[in-house]
Amino acid sequence: MEQKKNNLHIALVGNPNSGKSSLFNALTGLNQKVGNFPGVTVDKKTGSTELSPGHSVQIIDLPGTYSLYPKRADEWVTYKVLLGQDPGIHADMVVLLVDASNLKRNLLFCSQIIDLKIPVVVALTMMDLAASKGIDIDVEGLERELGIPVVSVNPRKNKGIPQLKKIIELRARQLRQAPPRDFIAGNALATGAIRDVKALFNGRDISDYTAIHYLINHESFDFDQVVQDKIEHIESIHAFNHTRIQADEIMQRYSRIKNIMQHTVSEPDPLQKTLFTEKLDKLFLDRTWGYIILLGVLFLLFQSVFWIAQYPMDAIDWSFSRLGAWLSHMLPESWWSNLLINGLLAGLSGILVFVPQIMILFGLITVLEDTGYMARISFLTDKLMRKVGLNGKSVMPMISGFACAVPAIMSTRNIENKKERLLTILITPLMSCSARLPVYTMLIAVAVPNQRVLGIFSLQGLVMMGLYMLGLFMAMIVSYVAKTFIKLKEKSFFILELPIYRAPRWNNVLVTMINKAKIFVVDAGKVIIVISLILWALSSFGPGQRMNRVEEQYAEQVRLHPDRAADLDKERQAERLENSYAGILGKVVEPIIHPLGYDWKIGIALITSFAAREVFVGTMATLYSVEGGKDADPQTLQQRLRSARRQDGRPVYTLASSLSLMVFYVLAMQCMSTLAVVRRETRSWKWPAIQLVYMTSLAYIMSLIVYQLLK
């Protein structure tokens, strides 16, 4: 019995915006994992929670859905799990979130799950909002009418969570069974077909309502061909009409729901005063003020990323430069100390220095989501999106692209229109993801003065915002052009439920910041460290004859000019780097990138950062650490880049070359993971190839224009 309890799997389901994410976070805290549902690229969040000491259960957060008649890919995920047709996921019971402020709509989904005969507990959320609307709910009466346990919870304030856990534990001890009665009496139009399907699955205890869904959607289930043919035959002999059966069922359900609400819910006069949320929406969704406020919010977002993160970033950068200098003097001169300082330590500094900005950016985005403003951005921009071939639903993946293009492209499955979904996939990588942030930050710090505009605004923050806006602007242009080439004609509808405005859940914000930092350090860090070590080897070694010639040449120079030994050693290190394997590779690509204002070291970084954009910083850190040598003065990476010179003495990182490089990273693909996920989503290499060609070409042309105009 104990073994079964510990292996209990609980599915968390509900309508979108019913508080499911809040409850999942309240139950699981940091004990979460994110992956993909088997066979589909829809996010799967799982976690564990302890109901009582020594009794933990697994929580599966299923995508939000309004009913058991799915339309989108994520709704199909939930549907198959609830129907027991997902071979990878089994739910022993269901915790169903019901929004008390929209009870009638939420009870439709609830009634359907009841009739599936799955053990279910209702978590009644948004009770505070219901109260603000003047809605009074008799929770005990609702529990009696539904025939299942109902618990009032407020995950944001951790209210009702212990009671919910207690009810779940009672079910685990077999004290709470499946719903004892049907929500509706059945469907007289399908009595014969239901009887025959249940007889076909005689070995399984399925409900009448489950049988109806087998009849409606059996083609999408993993039944063998014999069973498929038999169900088709049952449909034929009973003249089973899907549309008529579904319409009759929905009418019956709403009739029963109306009766239940009359007995358990007290609602105010419909002419109640306008809520605070509606008053705010008159301002935030205004055709003029709405866009002004949106630009203001984005402006403050990027100003804050620079302003707040500046001090911890400077501290981390300074600490690593001092640590490297200390190790250089303490450790003996050998290949392993060189590897430790110029390979491992340089790569590690290129990771950790950007953690503050990553955390702040994701923290602020989470605040916007929690307050309900992010959904308003989708609604506000729908009209603009339609002019370029998209709709408001494209905005959420695009905004998610500011974090990472991979999950953003996966989230386009919420877009029903095939053409709009494909266009969204094609342009989402133009959004400046968090992997670009370290590149922008480093180059802005090197080339853009840290000064105030009008005495208030940071010039560096304005440049940062300009880079993000450039990606967004180019995405609109690309979509407008591409819509004429993609010949798919399908009607598009945009329906969005706007959540109420709420105070952000600071615990959730903190959890998100920590998780995103962990993902960046672990996932991106592994790639950066490996490439940094490879680069150290390529930068430290080269063809024997060339390297020996450099050593002999500078040994002779030191013999002749012993008073210039320190300066000659720096020149020797630079010459060794240029004749190393990495230097040879950089020289090969230099003629191609020279018109953009780049040197051969930047060429190496462009090649290595195709694995992941943020590798650019680690590459620069390694190359300039190797060039500096063991006895070089302790300098931060920014200082080394500012002092970098070409052979003719001109600075490498001028305003023109730095802006050109920033524009290149705004527009170039430079991400193998994104190409892989586009291949997976489109089921073809055609679209990833088109993306790679058009983004690289666009990046080269725009960077060329910027450099030639500013040099």
How large a portion of the residues is in β-strands, by DSSP E? 5-15%
CATH topology of one domain: Rossmann fold
Taking all residues together, what is the mean pLDDT? 79
Number of strands: 11
Major sheet summary line: 7 strands, mixed
Total number of helical segments? Answer: 31
CATH domain class name of one domain: Alpha Beta
Short key terms for the protein model shown above:
711 residues; alpha/beta; Rossmann fold; two-stranded antiparallel ribbon; 31 helices; disordered N terminus
Question: Brief overview, please?
Answer:
By secondary structure, this protein is an alpha/beta fold. Helix 19 (418-427) runs antiparallel to helix 21 (459-482).
Explain this structure.
The protein is α/β, with parallel strands linked by helices and 711 residues long. Among the domains are: 171 residues, Rossmann fold (3-Layer(aba) Sandwich), CATH 3.40.50.300; 79 residues, no CATH class; 34 residues. 61% of the residues lie in helices and 7% in strands. It is built from 31 helices and eleven strands. The strands form three sheets. The protein has a seven-stranded mixed beta sheet, sandwiched between helices. α19 packs antiparallel against α21, α23 packs antiparallel against α24 and α30 packs antiparallel against α31. The longest helix has 42 residues. The chain is elongated.
List the helices and strands and how they pair.
Elements: H1 2-6, E1 9-14, H2 20-28, E2 32-36, E3 43-52, E4 55-61, H3 73-82, E5 93-99, H4 103-115, E6 120-125, H5 127-132, E7 136-137, H6 139-146, E8 150-152, H7 161-172, H8 191-200, H9 208-217, H10 225-237, H11 242-264, E9 265-266, H12 276-284, H13 289-330, H14 335-352, H15 355-371, H16 373-387, H17 395-400, H18 405-410, H19 418-427, H20 437-447, E10 452-453, E11 457-458, H21 459-482, H22 506-540, H23 544-560, H24 565-578, H25 581-593, H26 600-608, H27 615-628, H28 637-643, H29 655-667, H30 672-682, H31 686-710
